[in-house]
Design goal:
By secondary structure, the protein is an alpha/beta fold. The protein contains eleven helices and 13 strands. Strand 9 and strand 10 form a beta hairpin.
């Protein structure tokens, strides 16, 4: 019995701006800072590899002093709508009804909601009353892949069932107006908001790439490299500048043993479905894969068009490959990094 990914669909928020149109807001925000520092920040935004990003708020709201409560209320209101629309789209792609889903996983780390998003989806879409729920919060950017791993394990133990993984994120709700640290600035330059939903199935007749294997890799003594601090003004980003080097140092252990477990080498992989964490991380991984004769052009394009949407972003990359209908027998490697610090991997075969 195999588990397959049958559909992926994204949903974007209603607000969007090209980076060139955000620069004037950044300049106003930076007033009062040393001029050399201001020029450095503008250059960082312009060189972040993000041409456009979407948001649950318009720029005026983002660059306005709002409380944690106000930002989180906007987050809760908007992510419910984004999650519902993305799930509806993925169900339509798979020719399914909401009542066909037996297991729902919702992942989000950019706001706080109790009950979680899945509870609202069950009500608004009229899903099964005995559906199994799993909300995931603390896995950060890796949670899109993590959610698929959890769904796969549920379906492997339950033949003839279907699962939905819904990743919905709004990093703009975590922007800290009074924080002029490079971490907050880099975060603002690379992140955007968005949602994506994945449908998985353990029905033999359902079509889609099979999940051949999956694994997690945990870095020791790296818990402070990525995540959030919970402060009075909201969720304050933690992003260590050493993350790209940490990935590079561990890259051989992350990639090669996992493939060897499946009697494969990197040359056997046709599609690299990598989470675009940011320009520096993308460049690091691109260099590492480039030496192995592979590219991550799809990843760079998603970063350019949407920015880093935390857990949802790798699913945007996955959707691009799914929509191309790869040939039978082609293989894909999903890879994402997140707080912990950890790497999440999935091996797919069409």
């Amino acid at each position: 019995m195999s588990v397959k990914i049958t559909a992926v669909a994204k949903q974007l928020p209603k607000y969007y701006r090209e980076t060139k149109d955000i620069i004037p807001f950044v300049k106003v925000w930076m007033q009062g800072q040393e001029e050399r520092f201001q020029r450095k920040v503008i250059k960082l935004f312009e060189g972040a590899g993000v041409d456009k990003r979407y948001s649950i708020m318009d720029p005026e709201e983002v660059f306005t002093a709002t409380t944690f409560e106000e930002k989180n209320n906007i987050y809760a209101r908007e992510v419910i709508q984004l999650a519902e629309k993305s799930l509806q789209k993925s169900l339509e792609k798979a020719n399914l009804n909401p009542t066909d889903i037996d297991f729902i996983i919702t992942v989000s780390c950019t706001g706080i909601m109790i009950p979680s998003v899945d509870a609202y989806l069950i009500n608004s879409l009229g899903m099964k009353q005995d559906i199994v729920r799993l909300p995931v919060t603390e896995m950060g950017c890796a949670a899109g892949v993590s959610g698929i791993i959890y769904a796969k394990n549920f379906l492997k133990a339950n033949p003839n069932k279907r699962a939905a993984v819904v990743a919905v994120e709004a990093p703009t709700a975590t922007f800290q107006l009074e924080d002029f640290s490079m971490t907050n600035i880099v975060s603002a330059a690379i992140f955007g908001d968005g949602a994506s939903s994945v449908i998985l199935s353990s029905y033999e007749d359902d079509q889609g790439p099979k999940i051949i294997n999956e694994a997690m890799y945990h870095f020791y003594d790296a818990t402070k490299m990525m995540g959030f601090n919970l402060v009075n003004s909201g969720l304050q980003m933690i992003l260590d500048k050493e993350v790209p080097q940490k990935i590079a140092d561990h890259f051989p252990e992350i990639i090669h043993p996992f493939l060897e477990q499946n009697a494969l080498k990197i040359s056997d992989i046709d599609h690299l479905i990598f989470h675009p964490g940011g320009k520096k991380i993308v460049q690091t991984v691109e260099d590492l894969f480039g030496v192995l004769g592979k590219n991550i052009n799809g990843t760079k394009e998603v970063l350019r068009l949407y920015g880093n949407m935390s857990s949802a972003t790798v699913l945007y990359v996955l959707e691009r490959f799914m929509d191309r209908n790869p040939a039978k027998g082609e293989r894909g490697l999903m890879l994402s990094f997140g707080p912990g610090f950890s790497a999440q991997r999935i091996l797919l075969e069409w």
